[in-house]
Design goal:
The chain has 14 helices and 18 strands. The strands form three sheets. Strands 1, 2, 3, 4, 5, 16, 17 and 18 form an eight-stranded mixed sheet that branches. It has an eight-stranded mixed sheet with strand order 6-7-8-9-12-13-14-15, with helices on both faces. Strands 10-11 form a two-stranded antiparallel sheet. Helix 9 packs across helix 11. The radius of gyration is 23 Å and the shape is globular. The termini are far apart.
Length: about 425
């Protein structure tokens, strides 16, 4: 028995050490000036030949023209001539840090049993030392909305920065919103049970929507109750009615989106965002009228139906932006945590299919920050905002030129090393020695 216990302890220690990421960066102690770069502000503006000064973790000044002299004796100067500076990219609706290895149950903590879990908080399960977390930073993804899965109401998400010892240090916005999975108005038959796999009307749709309505009616009744006993699920929803939390409704079909919008209006939910939104372009006018934003499904996807344009997922952002909808990009789906590093390239694809490069950039910076409610501090390069940004040798939306030289989170210069870069250097040196 002792031998078995010792083996398990060694296994756990080995797994833990193999997952440890770089030591988080130390707080900024000296002013930093980034000079000569093309600054992509994140709000559609571009400053050529800029100067950006970082002090005490914030952007203290940003100057359009570096003909203004900076005293280098009082700060560290980074000459970024010919390079580009961007605000840190933000990945919403991700299970980053909640699952490490899908096949190892002990590392999987992205969902809870049951259907009604608004009180389940993803933040306390977030693993800051995930190897997946460190793999995002070399592509400029520096912030994430960590989101639970499963159930009708999955739980409550939080927003974190990607360089911390623990979740307490990582948190940027705690318990920002509740995530609901809206019923599908159409379903596919279960082919493995011999059913017809073709799309058909979901006969239980009305019943499932009524269950949601009943839950919210009970939650509103609880909010008006004077009873002392606390009901955790109902208590967690109170912020939806006073505007301190946002309701994120995961829904793709046209009828579902319409019903979800009407549901929020009739139930007094102050703020709502559609997540996924495959058919959102069909009801864009309704979304605009009700000031509903969209976190659009993974751009690098196939069309959902055989009669759809092959490039529909690529041009969805353009269709919605042209209608005046506030749009951000998310990347949920198969292998979503691994694919989160491709966020800038999703934006690059939307630029190839109709948006300008700066419009595409907004989808993963200021637009997403605004949807998540952190736009006062993140999402753009503006005086007074957090110095969360990076320097790239080229266009950060192009996988060929997104090569980071420096990255900062709250003014702290972070490591850009990862398990992948370590292996790349190791085998590059091996090949060089054989030449």
């Amino acid at each position: 028995m002792k031998t078995k216990q010792l083996y398990i302890l060694i296994l756990l220690m080995t797994f833990g050490f193999s997952n440890a990421q770089q030591t988080p960066a130390k707080p900024q102690t000296k002013a930093i000036a980034i000079t000569g770069a093309t600054a992509h502000i994140g709000n559609g503006e571009v400053y050529e030949n800029s100067i950006i000064i970082l002090e005490n973790g914030k952007i203290s000044n940003i100057i359009k023209d570096n003909t203004i002299k900076v005293d280098p004796s009082k700060m560290d100067v980074i000459d970024a001539t010919g390079k580009h500076v961007y605000p840190g990219f933000i990945i919403p609706n991700t299970t980053l840090g909640l699952v490490e290895i899908d096949a190892v149950r002990a590392t999987d903590d992205d969902g809870e049993l049951g259907s009604w879990n608004p009180h389940i908080r993803s933040l306390i399960a977030y693993n800051t030392e995930s190897k997946v977390v460190e793999s995002l930073r070399p592509n400029g993804v520096l912030l994430a909305q960590v989101t639970p899965r499963t159930g009708r109401i999955s739980g409550t998400s939080s927003i974190v920065q990607l360089d911390a010892w623990n979740w307490e240090d990582a948190v940027v916005k705690e318990d920002d919103g509740i995530h609901m999975n809206w019923p599908n108005s159409f379903t596919r038959g279960r082919w493995w049970l011999g059913e017809d796999p073709a799309m058909k009307v979901n006969k239980n749709y009305s019943k499932q929507v009524k269950e949601i309505v009943d839950f919210f009616n009970a939650a509103k009744a609880y909010s008006n109750s004077t009873e002392a006993e606390i009901n955790l699920p109902y208590d967690a929803t109170l912020g939806l009615f006073d505007g301190t939390k946002k309701l994120y409704i995961h829904v793709d079909d046209e009828k579902g989106i319409i019903d979800a919008v009407n549901f929020t209006k009739h139930n007094g939910v102050k703020s709502m965002t559609i997540v996924g939104g495959y058919h959102a372009y069909k009801v864009a006018d309704l979304l605009k009228q009700n000031n509903i934003s969209v976190l659009l499904q993974r751009v690098h996807s196939r069309p959902g139906q055989t009669d759809h344009d092959y490039d529909l997922p690529f041009k969805m952002a353009k269709l919605l932006v042209d209608k005046g909808i506030l749009v951000g990009l998310e990347g949920s789906g198969q292998m979503e945590r691994m694919n989160a590093r491709n966020l800038p390239f999703y934006a690059g694809t939307t630029a190839a299919y109709g948006l300008s490069k700066e419009q595409a950039l907004q989808l993963i910076t200021l637009n997403t920050a605004t949807i998540l409610g952190i736009q006062k501090h993140y999402g753009s390069l503006e005086t007074g905002k957090s110095a969360t940004l990076f320097i790239s040798e080229g266009d950060a939306l192009d996988m060929r030129t997104n090569i980071l030289t420096h990255a900062f989170i709250d003014g702290r210069q972070i490591s850009l090393e990862s398990h992948q870069t370590t292996l790349w250097k190791r085998y590059s040196e091996k090949l060089e020695s054989q030449d």
